Amino acid sequence: MLYLYPTPNATLLSTPTTFSPSSSPPRSTRFRMLHDSLPPLPENRIVLGVGGAGVDFLAAVASYPNPDDKIRTTSLMVQGGGNAGNALTCAARLGLSPRLISKVANDTQGRGILEELQADGVDTSSVVVSEEGDSPFTYIIVDNETKTRTCIHTPGYPPMIPSDLSQTSLSSALDGARMLYLDGRIHETALLVAQEAARKNVPILVEGERIREGLDDLLKLADYAICSAKFPQAWTEAASIPSALVSILVRLPKIKFVIVTLGEDGCLMLERSVDGFIETLFLAEAPQSEEMDVDILLELLKRRKDDNIAIPTCVSSPVTKLRANGVGTVCGRLFVGTAEKVPPSELQDTTGAGDSFIGAVLYAICSNMPPEKMLPFAAQVAATCCRAVGARTGLPHCTDARLASFLS
Predict the structure, then answer these.
(1) d(CA 271, CA 370)
(2) What's the rounded Cα separation, in Å, for the pair 311 and 318?
């Protein structure tokens, strides 16, 4: 459910106004639109997510309060949240068929969480519902002045543990899955699912939002990683973000690529070269490029960006042996992705921007998008999300005209 409460300056209603989770057409209309106007969807579009799903209480304020202030909201919205819940909702609206493993309580909030996910096409049959306890929720202060958000999270109780997930439920959830996404929460259960996914050769994408208990074990099984801006250096203690990306690929030999999202500064991606023949051929033909400092390479790529282009773009290096001082070397390609230049008048809220980016990357992997297309596509989806208050309100469907050039 999504409830939008009147602001002090709005026309007052006797009761809260209720909207569908996306203010979108009915499901039958939505699916007819998908069938009639889209290029073919990925052949296998089942993705399984393990992690947080909860309720967000979004209070927008004119400016962030000082200690001991008493202020009023300009608006209040209540809608579903949680990293995994948001990312899978995004993936569903883009055309994938997501499944979620999480835990809620059998309370009003828990029932609302499930109803909202189901309305967007997320399979919640593997979500554990506790007859007692409380569902997770987050207070979010949206600062209208700086366009930032501050999150205060209250975990659900009782927490999810591996014994909550039966072997039958685990097998059913992974059956036919193209991808597994882990947001780093409920790490013991996530590890159980990841180990089974690895056994079945299901690719795994792990989110590195911040250092969490058990995250190292999940990263060891990951095929892909997407990190917040502060995570790579915090996890590796490298001197720079590019050096940290090299360190991640050195430490985690299974990882195919790692992306770090940088907000309005776009993103960086380091992709490992997995074709030994191409790697050997490139280095043999270009001995002068046998080894390049990754920080220097980043500066060279930045010079190739066209800052006059408003839509997201991407520049990349050729396959190169990249060096990070004190870390080591890795052979691969470095990508610099830009963010959309959203006009200040259109920027509403950054809540869920990272989750929507991940949802778009899940779609891109299932669609076999090359990185040069994937990064601008994910940036466009994230920018669209930021044009509305809340993590899900502005999530686009695959029929959105702003995505047409990326999906054609």
Answers:
(1) 11
(2) 23
Please list the ranges in the chain whose pLDDT falls under 50: 1-36, 276-288
* Residue 218 backbone phi and psi in degrees, to 5: -70, -40
Helix H or strand E encompassing 110: helix 108-119
pLDDT at 20: 34
For residue 383, give both structure tokens.
Answer: 């920018």
User: Residue 371: is it exposed, middle or buried by C-beta count within 10 angstroms (0-12/13-18/19+)?
Assistant: middle
Cα 404 to Cα 116: distance, rounded to the nearest angstrom:
26
339 near 350, Cβ under 8 Å? no
CA 149 to mean position of chain CA atoms: 17
Q: Which residue has the tokens 């554990």?
A: 128
CA 72, CA 59: separation in Å to the nearest integer? 9
Alpha-carbon distance of 5 to 332, in angstroms, equals: 50
Q: In the beta sheet, which residues pair with residue 179?
A: 47
> CB–CB of 298/334 below 8 Å?
yes
pLDDT recorded at residue 319: 96
What's residue 38's pLDDT? 55
- The DSSP string of 214-249 is THHHHHHT-SEEEE-TTHHHHHH--SSHHHHHHHHH
- To 10 degrees, what angle do helices 353-366 and 83-94 make? 50
> Which residues have C-beta within 8 Å of that of residue 9, sequence separation ≥ 6?
74
Name the CA dihedral angle for 225, 227, 231, 236, rounded to a multiple of 10 degrees: 30
